[in-house]
Design goal:
Blueprint: H1 2-23, H2 32-49, E1 52-58, H3 68-72, H4 77-91, E2 94-95, E3 97-105, E4 125-129, E5 132-144, H5 146-152, E6 156-159, E7 168-169, E8 173-178, E9 191-196, E10 199-209, E11 214-217, E12 220-223, E13 228-231, E14 234-235, H6 244-254, E15 258-261, H7 267-283, E16 288-290, E17 295-296, E18 298-299
Parallel strand pairs: 5-13, 7-14, 8-10
Antiparallel strand pairs: 1-15, 1-16, 1-17, 2-15, 3-5, 3-9, 4-5, 6-10, 8-13, 9-10, 11-12, 11-18
Helix pairs in contact: 2-5, 4-6
Length: about 300
């Protein structure tokens, strides 16, 4: 998992460097029945998240498949990715949970614990901007959909969790929930200027997680104390010269979530799922697959 995630991190960093170098411009109802309905829905989501899953992966840049560069040359790529995303949600119990990159532009003097993989090579990478040297540092980031955020409500230490409106973004202002360690540097309402998958954006802090909040996925426990949580929002940004790269990268990420499968799924059944996803993706002119490793998702 870590190797595949790092590949997208490095891709977005490379895209960002190209961008910087000049190749891209830059009343809630209060009646009893409504409360009962929300409680039942929340309990259902809790059971679903703690189910058995396969991760959707993309196949670009693998032997025999198109490169990212070739894929990004397709003028209809964003439209195809959005259609495939709708298919995943319509046909499966699909959750958008994806670890991807956000970069601090300018010299970073924070703790290495906030940096991707605690890797010093990701810290203050030198790039050129308008003929001047600047720096890029890749931070730990996770994108979550509205179903998962319903569970995280129980893990908010300060501020609030994501709300429905946070999942519709019309501009470059994006709400974020920060891990507990960030509370030593920021407060609710603070703004962070970051580059997110090539998009320069303002991230507004709406809440902080309790210490030791974590995901356990693919046999790895990821503690979110040093993470930035971003909503897996929808956007109607125009696919123009300035936004095209971001939308391509972003919707690839939205399509790399988790599909719920039956418990104790056999190898033959997993292969059937893989064939369904692969063939369906090809129907949209895309190249996606399923990882074969079955996983539970535990949020605690």
């Amino acid at each position: 998992m870590r190797k595949h995630l790092r590949r997208l991190y490095l891709l977005s960093i490379s895209a960002l460097i190209v961008l910087i170098c000049g190749c891209y411009e830059k009343e809630e109802k209060k009646d009893v029945s409504a409360n009962e309905e929300r409680t039942e829905r929340k309990e259902g989501i809790q059971n679903q998240i703690n189910g058995n899953y396969l991760q959707v992966i993309d196949r670009y840049d693998y032997d025999g498949f198109p490169t990212y560069q070739e894929a990004f040359s397709d003028r209809e790529l964003v439209k195809k990715l959005k259609c495939f995303n709708e298919y995943l949600h319509d046909e499966y119990d699909y959750f958008e949970l994806s670890f991807q990159s956000a970069q601090k532009i300018g010299y970073y003097d924070g703790n290495i614990d906030f940096v991707l993989d605690n890797d010093k090579s990701m810290l203050n990478q030198e790039v050129e901007l308008n003929g001047k040297k600047t720096y890029v540092t890749t931070l730990k980031t996770v994108m979550i959909d509205c179903s998962i955020s319903q569970i995280l409500k129980d893990h908010i230490n300060e501020g609030r969790c994501f709300e429905d409106d946070d999942y519709e973004i019309a501009d470059n202002k994006i709400p974020v929930i920060l891990g507990s360690e960030y509370s030593k540097r920021y407060i609710v309402g603070d703004e962070l200027e970051l580059n997110y998958l090539s998009l320069n954006a303002i991230f507004t802090v709406v809440g902080f997680l309790e210490p030791d909040t974590s995901f356990t996925i693919l046999n790895q426990k990821v503690t979110l104390d040093n993470y930035i949580c971003i909503p897996a929002f929808e956007t109607n940004m125009i696919v123009d010269f300035q936004n095209k790269l971001f939308l391509q990268l972003f919707y690839i990420q939205k399509n790399k979530g988790m599909i719920m499968i039956s418990d104790n799924c056999t190898e033959e059944e997993v292969e059937e799922y893989r064939n369904l996803i692969s063939e369906s993706a090809k129907g949209y002119g895309l190249y996606f697959d399923l990882a074969t490793l079955q996983t539970k998702i535990l949020i605690e």
